[in-house]
Amino acid sequence: PAGALASRRLGQADEPRLLSYTFHMSISGEHRAEKPSRVSFELVEVQGVVKLTLTHDELAPGSKTAETTQHGWAAIISSLKSLVETGHPLPFSRLGFAPSQQEKTT
């Protein structure tokens, strides 16, 4: 869609265990010139709890996407953990993709 930071195309889905998709950032010409990478989320039960593993691979050496996302995934997973535990996600204002004030109030 117009204005999107990245495009995605479904790769694999094995509900409820695995979701994998291509990831192609479009925030700059350098990002758009790269080949899409792959993002996978896998859920596995371990001793009565669920373990979530996020893998972002198929990145070219020196990838601009890798540089841009290296801290983002940790923040997103941390926010997801807070949402699951408290019902409230962490704010993302410092990463530049927080919901606008209008979205928060509607």
Descriptive notes:
There is one protein chain. The chain is of the alpha+beta class and 106 residues long. It has helices at 29-33, 64-69, 72-86, 101-105, and strands spanning 6-14, 18-25, 37-46, 49-57. β1 and β2 form a beta hairpin. The radius of gyration is 15 Å and the shape is globular.
- Roughly what fraction of the amino acids lie in strands? 25-35%
Count of individual beta strands? 4
What's the total helix number? Answer: 4
> What is the quaternary state of this protein?
single chain
Topology summary:
Layout: E1 6-14, E2 18-25, H1 29-33, E3 37-46, E4 49-57, H2 64-69, H3 72-86, H4 101-105
Antiparallel strand pairs: 1-2, 2-3, 3-4
Task: Describe, in short, the structure shown.
This protein is α+β, with helices and mostly antiparallel strands. The chain has helices at residues 29-33, 64-69, 72-86, 101-105; strands spanning 6-14, 18-25, 37-46, 49-57.
What would the keywords be for this entry?
4 helices, 34% strand, disordered C terminus, 106 residues, four-stranded antiparallel beta sheet, alpha+beta
